[in-house]
Write a structure and sequence with these properties.
The complex is a heterodimer of chains A (388) and B (224). With 388 residues, chain A is an alpha+beta fold. Chain A contains 10 helices and 5 strands. Chain A folds into 3 domains: 161 residues, no CATH class; 67 residues; 132 residues, Histidine kinase-like ATPase, C-terminal domain (Heat Shock Protein 90, 2-Layer Sandwich). In chain A, a hairpin with a 2-residue loop joins strand 2 and strand 3. In chain A, helix 2 packs antiparallel against helix 5 and helix 7 packs parallel to helix 9. Chain B is α/β, with parallel strands linked by helices and 224 residues long. Chain B has 2 domains: 137 residues, Response regulator (Rossmann fold, 3-Layer(aba) Sandwich), CATH 3.40.50; 82 residues, Orthogonal Bundle (Arc Repressor Mutant, subunit A). Chain B contains 10 helices and 10 strands. In chain B, strand 1, helix 1 and strand 2 form a beta-alpha-beta unit. Chain B is globular. Classes of the chains: A alpha+beta (388), B alpha/beta (224). At the A-B interface, helix 5, helix 6 and helix 7 of A face helix 1, strand 4, strand 5, strand 9 and strand 10 of B.
């Protein structure tokens, strides 16, 4: 089904594409400049250098400047006709054979028109001996020059087209590369998520069952065996709670399935109790999350995770505040922590990697140390574009 | 063999994607007096389609292959608001209970999978959520610490103790018995906790549920 605006668009005459418009401007521009330059140059050369004067300029004595003015004016009228012909016929858009005919035809028409004007203005007199032959040679020479001018114009157009096509091919290749990268990232995320959920769910579940079975066996075993079995069960528990959980989270933040805000709350909830936490970002993330692409949501979670880790490990933070704001065209997230300020030029490798991922999404990630006089610590600032 | 269901039985649906663990839970429930298995479900999709009116309590694995137990529980409770929901997880992710909107927050519980395989702990928790109480696994609760700079940090040790037991799902009488205090004293402590946390008596909010939410918000699991 086609809606009304769409139907109107289809009925309207097709607008000239940008490329064709540029081609026409180049063609007309080059031809106009070249032809005008030749027109002025030949007039000056004829009158001022070679001393050629009109056969008849009725009632006027031979005078170089007047002669020059007449010749330049006539030539420029010829140039105007040539340019009008080029603009109307558009030789640059024709097939090769038609293009040749069009170029020669326009040149010949402009040359004849110029010759007629020259005769009318007394530059040439067909009545003198060999007058017609001279005019014919003049027309032929002018035609050749104007064909050359147009050929140069076509040459410029061809160069421009080649550059444009090259640029388009490069842009298309870049877009394809970005698309492939995105598909690859999506596939990577899908696989990571699948493995992480399997570890988080089924594998941990199996460990729980094994622990329970071991403890049951231990309950009926001899005291020495019971101690050993309980120790093995405890090791299984530690492995499940520590290693498996950590591995699962490193692969993919499974809480993302419940929303970006839920995943962030999970990270904040796991901070040690001796760290004060203020979460002023959940509401913003809850509102913005579903509209952000999955890769952006993963970047947000990873940035907060890395920021929290750095704040605790390097900054010895005792207080952490997460602020989120939806601004015009984007989403900002600030992770502010107290404690030890990082060096001004410090770029932790984890953050550097995440900054590049944010840049791929059109965003930015910066780490700013807070002056110890103002409490110390750091502010990690993430900006991501917000889809309309 | 499943014992015949009596009108007093608490009907429990088991939603768990790990077959062996699901089977162990179902066997444990089916062989306990006063409990009946209302259904076993492997996926979130299948559980979401269950007849919620035939379920008193849903035992929900937090992480399912095709979704999560929290979402399944909320869907079932939309059709049966009186249903209790007990989340099971291999780790302390109790903060997920904060994702439940306040009007729906009553009657939810959280049990570690390890505790769930102990019959007394599991059956006690099922009964508590069936009665509309909020339940936190005592083992998980014992490992949680009060967060610095939080409102809970200003509570007295006794008040913290009372709040912790409320979070476990104990009634005031049970708390009094546990701490060797009078029920009146527990009331006083609890009222002081409410006042300290800014929890006011409101028709649309159960102060006990609000206290549990505050407990979850301002405590953190101790490092393993």
């Amino acid at each position: 089904m086609v809606n009304a605006p769409e139907a109107r668009r289809r009925q309207a005459p097709a607008a000239e594409p940008d490329g064709a418009r540029t081609d026409r401007r180049i063609m007309v521009g080059v031809v106009a400049v070249l032809a005008a330059a030749i027109a002025v140059f030949t007039s000056v050369q004829s009158v001022m250098v070679l001393g050629v004067f009109s056969h008849v300029i009725s009632g006027v004595e031979r005078e170089p400047w007047r002669e020059l003015a007449v010749r330049v004016s006539v030539n420029l009228v010829g140039v105007a006709l040539l340019v009008a012909g080029v603009a109307a016929v558009r030789p640059e858009r024709r097939r090769p054979l038609v293009r040749v005919l069009a170029v020669v035809g326009i040149a010949l028409a402009a040359a004849i028109a110029r010759a007629v004007l020259q005769v009318v203005n007394g530059v040439w007199d067909p009545a003198v001996p060999d007058g017609f032959a001279t005019i014919a040679v003049e027309v032929a020479a002018t035609t050749v020059i104007l064909v050359l001018a147009q050929s140069i114009g076509l040459g410029f157009v061809a160069l421009w087209r080649r550059a444009r096509d090259g640029e388009r091919a490069r842009t298309a290749a870049q877009e394809r590369a970005v698309q492939l990268l995105r598909q690859l990232q999506e596939e990577e995320l899908r696989v990571r998520r699948e493995i992480a959920e399997t570890i988080h769910g089924s594998v941990q579940g199996i460990f729980v069952v094994l622990e329970a079975q071991l403890r049951r066996i231990a309950a009926d075993a001899a005291p020495t065996d019971r101690e050993q079995l309980d120790a093995v069960a405890a090791q299984l528990g530690a492995l499940r709670e520590g290693e498996l959980r950590s591995l699962s989270h490193r692969l993919y933040p499974v809480d993302l399935a419940r929303g970006t805000d839920a995943a962030i709350r999970t990270l904040l909830a796991r901070l040690p109790a001796w760290v004060g936490v203020a979460d002023d970002a959940s509401q913003t993330l809850a509102a913005a999350g579903p509209r952000l692409p999955l890769e952006a949501r993963v970047v947000i979670v990873r940035v907060v995770e890395e920021g929290l880790s750095n704040a605790l490990r390097h900054g010895e933070a005792r207080s952490i505040r997460l602020e989120g704001r939806a601004t015009e065209g984007g989403l900002t997230l600030d992770l502010c922590s107290d404690g030890v300020s990082p060096a001004a030029d410090a770029v932790p490798s984890g953050l550097d990697r995440l900054a590049r991922r944010a840049e791929v999404l059109g965003g930015a990630l910066t780490l700013t140390p807070v002056d110890p006089a103002d409490g110390g610590g750091a502010r990690l600032h993430l900006w991501l574009p917000f889809p309309a | 063999m499943t014992p015949p269901q009596t009108p007093r039985d608490i009907r429990v649906a088991v939603v768990e994607d790990q077959p062996l663990y699901r089977q162990m839970l179902a066997t444990l429930i089916a062989t306990s007096d006063g409990f009946a298995v209302a259904g076993e479900y492997e996926t979130a999709a299948a559980a979401s389609e269950a007849d919620a009116r035939a379920i008193d309590v849903a035992l929900l694995d937090l992480r399912l292959g095709d979704g999560d137990g929290l979402t399944v529980g909320r869907r079932l409770r939309q059709r049966n608001p009186r249903m209790g929901a007990l989340l099971l997880s291999a780790s302390d992710s109790t903060h997920v209970l904060l994702d439940i909107p306040r009007p729906e927050a009553q009657g939810w519980g959280y049990l570690s999978k390890t505790s769930s395989l102990s019959a007394p702990a599991l059956l006690w928790a099922i009964r508590a959520v069936a009665e509309g109480r909020n339940v936190l696994d005592p083992e998980i609760r014992a490992r949680r610490e009060i967060r610095q700079q939080s409102p809970l940090a200003t509570l007295s040790p006794r008040q913290r103790e009372v709040l912790g037991l409320v979070a476990e799902g104990l009634t005031n009488a049970a708390i009094a018995e546990e701490l060797g205090l009078s029920p009146r004293s527990i009331d006083a402590h609890l009222n002081a906790v409410y006042a300290e946390l800014g929890i006011q008596a409101r028709q649309d909010r159960n102060p006990r549920v609000e206290a549990v939410r505050a407990y979850l918000s301002y405590t953190a699991p101790a490092p393993w």
